[in-house]
Design brief:
Number of strands: 9
Mean pLDDT: 91
Number of helices: 11
Bound molecules: 3,4-dihydroxyphenylalanine
């Protein structure tokens, strides 16, 4: 038998108890709920108004609630008394918060929360790269075209800079340095290199090895595989004598660590900020019940000398590789999610399955 009025009573009592901050408030709470004229007694008295067939279940539930509240009262009294007696710190005054107490999920049916699947995948990726010595870098989502394009060697007439394909905040035709929502995490490469050069007093003095996960924005029409906002993870490694073999090794190690069974394929390609450039595919078994298959993941290459120079790094002394790929694609493949929109709708029926 479900009894909304008893559930209500129970919930009221628990939230009032959570709010009771000192011994006086706890006494007051006891009187209200467990006292001779309290709400639990009243509920018991109301048994006679319940249809005869439901009375046993009703009575049982009242008793359960009563017992539960007595126990919680006892625990709360010990907690408050103990804190009061201890004297130090807050001296028993002001709200006491027991951070170790499990949260109350009574009758809400929600249960403890969990991290969003994209957050989890991002953390997994960061962890894998961290084991290979990459630290995490971040850059602003509201960028300028200097970092999103110019310093990445993307010329003014490049189609990627078309206002139709970007979320400009300032009019690119009028502003000398228009701001925009970044369209790629490659911007963070530039930010990290500039910072490292600044830290070195005008020149690079130590290698750079970072990954930069984050949101990017493109005014794409939303459908099952496109969103105006999505996530990428960027990698950048600059050192003395870094070559293409290091890039491929890193990608292979990443793929094995994350997927267990994986092959990596580099296909010649073009990006303005790398030379040579490649697209990289992984041959992976996304889920146990699926065969190995090739999946296009992202772009990579050796950082273009002009990009290094533009950030104050001497390409004679330092070389480096970079890569970048989309996090949603990977998450969708790995978890069999058919539509990117599901990741952003926040429908609990979907999120709880992951
Ligand atoms: N930024 C590119 C994109 O959004 C992906 C990319 C390609 C990143 C090559 C890189 C790279 O670091 O080297 O399509």
């Amino acid at each position: 038998v479900s009894c909304p009025s008893l559930d209500q009573l129970h919930n009221d009592a628990l939230s009032a108890l959570a709010a009771a901050a000192d011994a006086a408030a706890l006494d007051q709470w006891r009187t209200t709920f467990l006292g001779g004229k309290g709400r639990v007694k009243a509920a018991l008295g109301a048994t006679k108004d319940v249809p005869a067939a439901d009375r046993p279940a009703y009575g049982k539930r009242v008793n359960e609630i009563s017992r539960d509240l007595e126990e919680r009262h006892k625990a709360a009294a010990e907690r408050l008394g103990g804190a009061n007696a201890a004297g130090g710190g807050g001296g028993g005054k002001g709200p006491l918060v027991d951070v170790t107490e499990p949260p109350l999920f009574v009758e809400t049916g929600l249960g403890p929360g969990r991290r969003h699947i994209l957050t989890r995948v991002r953390e997994e990726l960061v962890e894998v790269f961290a084991r290979m010595g990459f630290s995490v870098a971040q850059g602003p989502e509201l960028e300028d075209d200097e970092h999103n394009f110019v310093k990445l060697n993307i010329p003014a007439d490049h189609p990627a800079r078309d206002p139709i394909d970007n979320f400009y905040i300032d009019d690119p035709a009028r502003s000398p340095r228009p701001r925009m929502l970044r369209s790629q995490t490659s911007t963070v490469q530039v930010r990290v290199m500039e910072q490292a050069v600044a830290d070195g007093g005008g020149k690079l003095t130590t290698p750079i090895k970072v990954v930069a996960p984050g949101r990017v924005y493109r005014p794409d029409t939303v459908d099952a595989t496109h969103s105006f906002m999505f996530h990428q993870i960027e990698g950048l490694y600059i050192d003395r004598g870094v070559g293409m073999a290091d890039l491929k090794t890193t990608l292979v190690q990443f793929a094995r660590a994350y997927f267990g069974d994986a092959e990596v394929r580099l296909r010649p390609s073009f990006f303005p900020f790398t030379e040579p450039s490649a697209e990289f595919d992984l041959r992976i078994r996304l889920r146990d019940d699926q065969p190995l298959r090739w999946m296009e993941l992202g772009g990579c290459g050796m950082v273009h000398p002009s990009v290094l120079r533009g950030s104050g790094i001497d390409p004679q002394e330092w070389t480096g590789f970079a890569f970048g790929f989309g996090i949603e694609r990977l998450a969708m493949g790995k978890y069999g999610i058919p539509d990117i929109r599901m990741l952003f709708e926040n429908d609990l029926r979907f999120l709880r399955q992951l």
